[in-house]
Amino acid sequence: MAADHFADRLVARIEATRSLLVVGLDPELRQLPPELLDGVEDLAGAAAAAARFCRAVIDGVAGVAPAVKPQSAFFEAFGAAGLHALEEVTAHARAAGLLVVEDSKRGDIGSTMAAYATAALGRLQIGERELPVHDSDAVTLSPYLGPESLQPMLDAADAYGKGLFVLVRTSNPGSARVQGLETPDGRVFEQVAKLIDELGAERRGACGYSNVGAVAGLTYPDDARVLRALMPHTFLLVPGLGAQGGAPDDFPLFVNDDGARRRRRRLARGRRRLENARGRGRCRSDGRRADPRRRARRRERADRRAARAARARRPLALVARAAALARTRRCGAPVAATAPARASAARSSRRAGGGPSRS
Ligand SMILES: O=c1ccn([C@@H]2O[C@H](COP(=O)(O)O)[C@@H](O)[C@H]2O)c(=O)[nH]1
After folding, report:
1. pTM of the full predicted structure?
2. According to the UniProt entry, which residue ranges have a biased composition of type Low complexity (predicted)?
C-alpha cells in the first residue's frame, strides 16, 4: 500500500477545509457563460472555453472544498481537445490543493480495465520512464463485470495512493430496475455494497477508511442507512443534489456517526468559547480585551478583500455560490457529496435553501 493513502489524504482535505462538498465540473457547452464562447468556432475553441470555466470554478472553491469531480463525458464531447482540457483541469485542481475524482464510470474486462487504470490513476511505462497520464486522485467505476474487472483499478489505487468510487445505488430514476432487484441475499446494490466492504477491508488508511469508496445517490435517502451499515469504513460519494431532486436535508443520513460526533464536538467547543467570551464581556479567546479600532480596521480589510474577490468572480456568480456553500456548511464527517458547478443546479440548490451537508 502506498504511504500516501487516498482516504487519509481525503480526511486531511476535509479537515483543512471543514467541508464535505465535492464540486462537480460538468462543462456542458450550452450552460457555459456566453462571454466565454465569444469567437468560439471549433472543438478546440469549445474545449478551451470549458477548461477556462473549470479553472475559474477551481480557483473559486480551492481552500473551501476538499475535492472536485470532473465529468469526463463533457470533456470527451470536445474530442481530442477535450481530453487535453480534462488533463489541464485536473492538473490545475491538484495544484490548487483539491483532490480530483474523475467521473468516467469505467467497467470492462481485465486487460481493458488495466488500460483505463493507467489513464486515470496510473503511469504508462515507456522504456525506462513511467509517465502519469490523467493523474486523477480517484475514479468512478461500474461493478457489473464482476470483482475481477475491478482488480486493475485496485492495483493502481494501491500502488499510487489513489481511490475508487464504485457505483452502488445510482441517483437516476431507473436505477432500481437493475440495482434494486431482489436476490436471496438482499437487493443487488446491497450485494455490491458487501463486495466494496470486503475489498476495502485490507485497504484502510490510518483514518480507518478504505480507498474503495461507493456512489450512493442523494435521491434515495431511504437506502442511506442500510448502505452506511453495510459499508462502515467506506467513503460515500453522494450525487444528485438539486437538479436531480436530492434534498440537502437528507444528506446527514449518509454521514457516519464518527463524522457526526466530530461535528458535534466542534460545535460544542465553539459554543463554550462564545459563552465564555460573552460572560467576561470580552470577545477574544485569549481573554484580552479587543481593541475596537483594530477590530474596525480588520473589518475594513475583510470587506475590501471580499469586494476584490467578488469583482474577480462576477462573470461566474455561481462559483461564489459554490464557495459560499462549502464555507457555510462546514462538517467533518467522512462522507462526500457532490454539487455541480452548473447554473441550473446552483439555482435549484438555492431554491432548496443551501448546501448538502448539515450533520
Ligand atoms: O449516481 C450517479 C453517479 C454520478 N452522477 C454524476 O454526477 C453529476 C450530477 O450532476 P447534476 O447536475 O447534479 O445532476 C453528473 O456528472 C453525473 O454524471 C450522478 O448524477 N449520479
Report:
1. 0.79
2. 328-347
The residues with which 182 forms a beta bridge, in sequence order, are 187
Q: Is 190 in the pocket of ligand 1 (CB under 6 A)?
A: no
> Is the beta carbon of 191 within 6 A of some atom in ligand 1?
no
**Beta carbons of 137 and 9 less than 8 angstroms apart:** yes
pLDDT in tens, 171-205: 999 999 999 999 999 999 999 999 999 999 999 99
On the CB side of 272, how many CA atoms lie within 13 Å of its CA? Answer: 6
Task: Give pLDDT tens digits for 289-323.
Answer: 556 677 777 777 766 666 555 444 433 334 444 44
Report the top-level CATH class of 6-358.
alpha beta
Assign 34 to helix, strand or coil.
helix
Mutate which of 21, 26, 89, 105 for ligand 1? The one with the most ligand atoms within 8 Å of its CB, which is 26
Q: What is the ipTM of this complex?
A: 0.98
Q: Cα dist. 130→117, 127, 144 in Å?
A: 14, 8, 30
Please state the domain extents for the chain. 6-358
For residues 131 and 134, what is the distance between their CA atoms, to the nearest angstrom?
10
Residue 107 DSSP symbol: -
Nearest C-alpha to atom 6 of ligand 1 is from which residue?
239
